[in-house]
Design goal:
The chain contains 4 helices and 4 strands. The chain is of the alpha+beta class. It has one domain. Strands 2-1-3-4 form a 4-stranded antiparallel beta sheet. The longest helix is centred in the first third of the chain and has 17 residues. It starts with a helix and ends in a 6-residue tail after the last helix.
């Protein structure tokens, strides 16, 4: 009798603790890189050696997924990766950038300084 009461009490407490919290969902970030000439091996290494890949992120909302996709546009390997296209899906549905574009890097504020820098 006592163990049944403890199990029931634990289940109720678990329900109370998780009530009102949104479950995290999958945010799939698709990367498509364009390498600087001769830098394909290094540029594509983040996708296991291929030009494109999809990497999962955990996101609590579409907005968090959008922010992660925009952040994924950052390019600190200026002489290695010429540019990127980054797309996102939240729970399997396409997510658009703040301006309604599929490619989040089209809205990336540092695009001019971080992309197309191979020859500089």
């Amino acid at each position: 009798m006592k163990s049944r009461y403890l199990i029931s009490t634990s289940a109720v407490l678990l329900l109370i603790a998780t009530a009102g919290k949104a479950a995290a969902a999958e945010c799939a970030i698709e990367y498509i890189r364009t390498a600087c000439p001769g830098q394909e091996t290094v540029s594509y290494s983040k996708c296991g050696g291929t030009q494109s890949c999809v990497l999962p992120e955990t996101a609590a909302s579409v907005e968090v997924c959008q922010a992660a996709a925009l952040k994924a546009c950052a390019n600190d390997r200026l002489k290695i990766t010429k540019s990127k296209v980054v797309r996102a899906k939240f729970d399997g549905k396409a997510v658009m950038s703040a301006s309604g574009k599929e490619d989040f890097c089209a809205d990336y504020e540092k695009r001019a300084t971080e992309f197309d820098q191979c020859a500089k």
